[in-house]
Design goal:
It is built from 5 helices and 5 strands. It is of the alpha+beta class. A 5-stranded antiparallel sheet has the order 3-2-1-4-5. β1 (about 10-20) and β2 form a beta hairpin. The chain is elongated, with a radius of gyration of 19 Å.
Length: about 150
């Protein structure tokens, strides 16, 4: 019997490239984006695709603690990771299938069902984009000095 490894957080190392004390924002360029190759969510995250230009802007409580060029570690929880996958893939897929099935049952038209499914997906992501400020607080990385 093998024991599967449980990961309770995801870490990324980076270098501070911008500090905005007025708005409480910190810009970090990731230095370990190449390590994402083994991550099952690498394609969803998009960090691995950016290569050396992986830059993340974060809100922090005390930006005065950080200085340009400083090495930091960003940490996200596995719970946050699972929630992001649900919001980005599972929920829109279920919505698309539900709309497609409903339209097909009501009309019997496959093209109408396909168009309705595509429309539902576009609507879902447009709604998510509109509500991004309300959802953003659920996806926070913590920043630690190295």
């Amino acid at each position: 019997m093998t024991q599967t490894e449980y990961i309770d957080h995801i870490d990324h190392e980076g270098i501070v490239v911008g500090v905005n004390r007025a708005s409480g924002k910190l810009s970090v360029r990731l230095t370990d984006a190449g390590d994402c190759a083994g991550c099952p969510a690498a394609k969803l995250c998009g960090v691995a695709d950016k290569g050396n230009d992986s830059r993340i802007d974060l809100s922090v409580e005390r930006p005065e603690m950080f200085s340009l060029g400083e090495r930091v570690k960003l940490r996200g929880t596995e719970k946050m990771h699972r929630k992001a996958i649900m919001v980005a893939t599972v929920v829109p897929c279920i919505a698309m299938l539900a709309v497609m099935i409903a339209i097909y049952v009501m009309t019997g038209s496959q093209p109408a069902a396909a168009l309705g499914g595509i429309g539902a997906t576009i609507f879902f992501f447009a709604l998510l984009w509109i509500m991004r400020d309300k959802v953003r607080h659920e996806f926070r990385f913590t920043v630690h000095k190295l």
